[in-house]
Task: inverse folding
């Protein structure tokens, strides 16, 4: 019984560590995704400002994929929504 409990504990610990390794905020993957989100959001903001709304929308979608809760992504999303309300249908 002890052997079975230790085996189960090892399995749970292994899964927990593998999940935790992917989700750490200081991992290279997390840093790259954050940087990509910021770049795409900045591009979206620039395209919104210059009136290239289709390009802005494409870049905003990429920013949302890489970092939906990043401050710059949220800013670009708000600008996009504001632009859509001002745009005549």
Result:
């Amino acid at each position: 019984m002890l052997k079975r409990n230790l085996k189960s504990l090892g399995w749970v610990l292994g899964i927990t560590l593998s999940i935790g390794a992917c989700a750490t905020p200081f991992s290279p993957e997390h840093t790259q995704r954050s940087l990509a989100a910021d770049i795409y959001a900045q591009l979206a903001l620039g395209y919104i400002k210059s009136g290239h709304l289709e390009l802005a929308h494409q870049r905003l979608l990429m920013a949302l994929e890489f970092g939906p809760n990043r401050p710059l992504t949220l800013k670009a999303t708000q600008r996009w929504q504001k632009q859509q309300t001002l745009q005549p249908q």
In short: DSSP finds four helices and no strands in the chain. Residues 28-50 form the longest helix (23 residues). Confidence is low (pLDDT under 50) at residues 8-21. The radius of gyration is 20 Å.
